[in-house]
Input
Amino acid sequence: MKPDRAMSLLGLAVKAGKVVSGEFSTEDSIKRHKARLVVIAEDASDNTKKKFKDKCKFYNVPVFIYGTKNTLGHAMGKQERACAAVEDRGFAGKLETLFGGSAEYGENSDHEAD
Output
């Protein structure tokens, strides 16, 4: 894993308007089939991790447990964040490569592009 590159790329995706963060927005993105990849902070609550792993499994969205809430929030230029959803295939694919390519659930997100 290359944490600096992955978090830098996440920040770039945020600036491009391709990331939503926070539990409500991330869940909404998954349900609307917009999420291409979900990142959950390692120090998120067990309930939050289970909730998003289950949702991502159901909707076939790759999910990664990575970084801390502080690291995730800092990469996005915000306060602490427990989770985030990347809504762009290009960014999601590159992040998946940087995270090591082994998502907890879902092989690929083949939802229609917006």
In short: The two ends are 30 Å apart (CA to CA). The chain has five helices and four strands.
